[in-house]
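fold-stage: in
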Amino acid sequence: MLNVFEELTLPNGTRIKNRFLKSAMSEIMANRQNQPTELHNKLYQAWARGGSGIVVTGNVMVDRKALGEPGNVVIEDERDLDRLKQWAQAGSENNTQLWMQINHPGRQSPRSLSKEPVAPSAIRLSNYSKQLFSKPRALTTEEIKELVERFIKTAQIAKKAGFKGVQIHGAHGYLVSQFLSSHANQRIDEYGGSLENRMRFLVEIYTGMRRMLGPDFPISIKMNASDFNDGGFSEAESLQVAEKLTDLGIDLIEISGGNYENPKMFKETEEGKEEIFFINYAERLKALIDIPVVVTGGFRSLNSMEEALLQNKTSMIGLARPLALMPNLPNQMFTGELRNVDTPRLTTGSKFLDEKVGSLVGISYYEQQMLRIAEGKEVKQHRNAWRPLFHTLKSHGLNGLLPRR
């Protein structure tokens, strides 16, 4: 038996059938009322049947007034409980653990979706023009408490609907990540200043979820190793936050890094090569804590997956883009049909344009493939960057050109 197909038991006793984790990718498939649709059901059913042990949803927002991108699912109350139950049932087939990723964009809400975004402090994103992102308004203490309750409420509804776990999105420069970073969080109250204060928002969300969901329901976090900003959230601080959450009883930590200002999470793997992101950080983290740690990004061969697990550098293999091309990838590796996977490097034919729109085109390409899977069509692998770009414009207009993850 290969290591990737060994069962994993979480600290709370939940058993995961294998070591494949489908990491969150934003599907942007919600309807105009921000509800999940039949497309979500079909897409997540395909991933469940494809053999992954854990499948994490694209980010589900907690406030309709704060969207990260067009097409986000939003859960504020139980109005869409029946739709959520259908989604949970479809994505839990084949003994799959379907976990809901819960998020708030904070200042990373585009101007077209939020005229006055909120954030820990009134600090604008530095790499984007005023036409794309408005300067955020600093949250009041009362509003922070209300947002904590929103995260908890969404998690409760996820459990009621039949999702098997939840993931707090604490990475990629969204609101939880903003609170953790002294670059984005310059408050002088109990939510700013020291690392203990900056992690208070996250700790209150987690402890509130644990109180309401119980000890046996999996709660995880996606967390930055660093935000790669001078004076921002550092690797040393990230290790301290992970230790704190471990002491509080969190079940799993998924590692990522970067934000819209330093988008390390968008990094393209050079075709034909393999570069596993954040693996060295994960190894250091695993030496400090005794809960599962997941590395996502860069795995392209069964050999590297096996080696990482055997050397205890990661507890699971986090995959995103490969599963948007091959939702059946775990099953194919189990049967021996597949040992290596390659993701195409898209090009417009212009090196200048590729540098300007490369990450956006890549995201659009995989969104297009997810839609094809949801519609019951075959994935179309190609290297033409113009096709996903035109698809995005057709589906979302100029809003589709805004940064997103």
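fold-stage: in (second)
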Amino acid sequence: MPGKILIADPVATNRIVLKVRLSAGHFEVTQASDAAETLRRTREESPDLVLLTGGLAGESLATLVDALRALPGQADLPIAALVSDRLPEAERRALATRVDALIIRPTSDAILMARLRGLLSQRNCLRDLSLQAGDGAPGFAEPAAPPLHHPGHVAILAPQGAPGQMLLRGLARHLRHTLRLVDAAAPFPALNTGPRPDVVLLYLPDMGDRAARELFAELRTARATRHAAALALLDSGAEETALHLLEARIEDVLMGRTDARELAARCDRLLSQSQTLDQLRRQTRDGIRASVTDPLTGLYNRRFALPFLERVCKGQEGAGRGTMETGFAVMLADLDFFKNINDKFGHSGGDQVLRHVADHFRRCLRDCDMVARIGGEEFLLVCPGVAADEARQTADRICRQIADTAIPLTGLPQPVHITVSIGLVMGRAGRGELSPTGGQAEKLLAQADAALYASKSHGRNTVTYQPRSAA
């Protein structure tokens, strides 16, 4: 089933009618007759969505929504309110700032189903991002921070002329966010410059169904607006367009005349939701980056480096004529007598040396090369698309320049010097695919490690080159 919905309505016949309508959409339905039962069933049954009606006698829907939000574990519970078009504007505005969907009766079964499915889809997206960015996710060092909402940007797409200007002025009186009017006939030159919108408000009077759908599809695929929340203002009779937009997962749709303060409330809520999702995406990206990065040097770590080498071996990374025909270099580099640095200057001094050497590796390599710290003082360098002579020259230059560089340490009057030993082996993309189990990367690393051992045995501060690998 697509989800469990709790219907809250004091009238039994209303609940029965709604249950029949929702059951036809394959929802699991549970019911409550008043605010107390709604709260109890939410605590006990953990519905996926709560559908409130305007018939809860003696109860303020806004107060009930606040109580539902305060329940443990229900901060992201989708709440929809199904209310009469005769509900006083003040009450509608109060609800619009709190609920995820304000659905005005009368409405068709198709519109109702589309709104509810959209809410469930949005909650699933939020929970997926929260799981990826939250506390306890593998490789993530920090728990998810609570969202901090700030003034954002709303782009109003409207036809050129007075109606769009009037809409802009009306919203400006009730929103603290930056508003920008964009020509709906050619929106993307303007949307691709300036601030990225958090919310796109589509004011589409007289726009046909197909044109509206195409415009929304373009918004969802454009880089500047793909993550923006969207709200469409349609004519009162544009139910088919509303349904198609909802099925395409637009966040909100309003048909007919709308009070500017209610519209501002809906925009404000959508903007808060958009900023929450953006913050979770940033935390996810930061967590992924942290999981493959060495925190001391800022280089990649073993978790990133070994799969990268596998992809180079298969021709999937740094692919191209140079990689496939010329080959690639694999180097293992180890700092000589690094234990003496730690013993003499402490781990703080050792850390400064490691950071300095890491910066030196970055300067010596190309943008397409990869360098990672894979052990205490051991580094892996992978250089796609290089010939053997070029790789040897690079390794010799790294070895020579590190030996010639004085490394300043905090609190010491004199800098320190260190040398590096390097083992170098060449590979060719695609060779590992000849083996049923692959394994070219492991063989290359073993050969590079043997070459590194030879450099250590031959006095250190040198490069040992292994002929092209037969792996």
